Amino acid sequence: MSIDIQDVHKSFGSLEVVKGVTMTVEKGEVVSVIGGSGSGKSTLLMCINGLEPINSGRILVDGTDVHARGTDLNRLRQKIGIVFQQWNAFPHLTVLENVMLAPRKVLGKSKAEAEAIAVEKLSHVGLAEKLKVYPSKLSGGQQQRMAIARALAMSPDYMLFDEVTSALDPQLVGEVLDTMRLLSSEGMTMIVVTHEIAFAREVSNRVAFFHKGRIHEIGPPSQVIGNPQQPETIDFLKSVL
Ligand code: ADP
Ligand code: MG
């Protein structure tokens, strides 16, 4: 069981933004992806769950070629939860109803089943008290935890996080990182695009440093963050630490 990225190239028109990325994330691993703005981190995540096509290479999720003709992308995406910097919840639905939606519509669960799942996942991210509240009443950190609960409600095997704390006020970052820490301690397989270097260092099995569409360095955090070898990695870490 793994996400296996093999020599992936991806262009938008004539602009190549992912330039031959190879990386395997094994089940149970947490891999953080760090790197400057525009280096192709978000694009790679979109390619992993088939939201963007690729130009060459392959991405296998548990052996299924994401971009092959005939791949059932809806089924594949059920395995892969994704959380973005911001998720616009349905404002006219409560927190509970928002999280029930995908189990109801996509998995075909009964109302009672979907509610049980949503209550469980919202409790897990610390929002048991907010079930009946409307999303606009939540803080930014609570909204991001709701987004995580929503992804978890599909019982994914993998979770992709794309700078989920970047839009938050500094005092709200910790609670979201705590939730991600909890998931990692439970063995969730995660790819975490983040600028939170201390967090990446603490939770990751490996860190990948992206620069201009390529992985310049990948390895344990003690190596890539603690003792970087490439000048680009050293410069980047100086800029964010
Ligand atoms: P990162 O997440 O590392 O900041 P992105 O993957 O978002 O980088 O973007 C990489 C490059 O691809 C940037 O130059 C960005 O402008 C470009 N890009 C991203 N999405 C699109 C798109 N849908 N159409 C055209 N260019 C895009
Ligand atoms: Mg991005």
TrEMBL record:
What is the residue range of the signal peptide feature?
Answer: none
Recorded protein name is Amino acid ABC transporter ATP-binding protein
| CDD domains the UniProt entry points to | ABC_HisP_GlnQ (cd03262)
Principal localization reads: membrane
According to its UniProt entry, this protein's organism is Ancylobacter koreensis
Q: Does the keyword Nucleus apply?
A: no
Give the SMART domains listed for this entry.
AAA
Q: Which SUPFAM superfamilies match?
A: P-loop containing nucleoside triphosphate hydrolases
Q: Which InterPro entries match?
A: AAA+_ATPase, ABC_ATPase_HisP-typ, ABC_transporter-like_ATP-bd, ABC_transporter-like_CS, MetN_ABC_transporter-like, P-loop_NTPase
Q: Which GO terms describe its molecular function?
A: ATP binding
Residue ranges constituting the ABC transporter domain according to the UniProt record = 3-237
Which keywords annotate this record? Amino-acid transport, ATP-binding, Cell membrane, Membrane, Nucleotide-binding, Transport
The keyword Cell wall biogenesis/degradation is annotated on this UniProt entry? no
Pfam families xrefs: ABC_tran
Q: Which domain of life is it from?
A: Bacteria
The compartments listed are: Cell membrane
Task: Report the family membership.
Answer: Belongs to the ABC transporter superfamily.
What membrane topology is annotated for this entry?
Answer: Peripheral membrane protein
